[in-house]
Amino acid sequence: MTTGHVLRVMEQFHSIQGEGVHTGRSAVFLRLAGCTVGCPWCDTKASWPIHSHPLVLVEHLVDTVRQAHPALVVITGGEPLQQDLTALCQALAPLAIPRHLETSGVAPLSGSFEWITLSPKRHQPPQGDLLACCDELKVIVHEPADLEFAMAMATACKARGPSRQAPQLCLQPGAGSATGTHLAIRHIQKHPQWRLSLQIHKWLGLP
Ligand code: SF4
After folding, report:
1. What stretches of the chain adopt beta strand conformation (E)?
2. Residue ID of nearest Cα to ligand 1 atom 7
3. Ligand 1 in contact with 197 (CB < 6 A)?
4. Which domains does the chain have, with CATH numbers?
5. Engineering a disulfide at 170: which of 15, 50, 67, 197 sits with its beta carbon 3.0 to 4.6 angstroms away?
6. How remote is the CA of residue 2 from the centroid of ligand 1, in Å?
7. Predicted pLDDT at 2
8. Is the CB of 77 under 6 A from ligand 1?
């Protein structure tokens, strides 16, 4: 079925999920264009200017996923929620491949997902609806204030979604940050409800 819907897309590729709770699983990544959050350590800065990336038919994205037949499809960015994901999720649904969203949570939720990873940023905190419905909270750690932020976000998730299962809690050291690695490990040792997330795809030279 042709919907004619388009999204600005930076890249689409089949790899493994390299971070978070689903590390190691076969995944197609749909990296949508556009992000206004402006994290100084961002490793996908090329995604920021949305109009420098092409418009791609949703059908084409679905074909990519269908042909790869992965364990899951990860809709990421950029900040994917800065585009409306409703049509994409509807078009992917017949494939029955779990749809995962990776978001900083700065824009309202659109679309429907089997798994939502919220990676909130201190300088631009997330929307309440993402705090209430995320399945995984993943906080990047560079300095001690990031740990305080992580704890505050975990508390906010609990307060926003008391009737649902609390999200899995991940601390991810900033890329190349020895301080972040040390802080994250020490924190996890003291607070075992948290787990370490590492970007193993980078070690393996995978996209
Ligand atoms: S939210 Fe993600 S894509 Fe946007 S600037 Fe931050 S790390 Fe980069």
Report:
1. 6-16, 26-32, 55-57, 72-76, 99-103, 115-118, 136-141, 168-173, 194-196
2. 42
3. no
4. 6-203 (3.20.20.70)
5. 197
6. 31
7. 53
8. yes
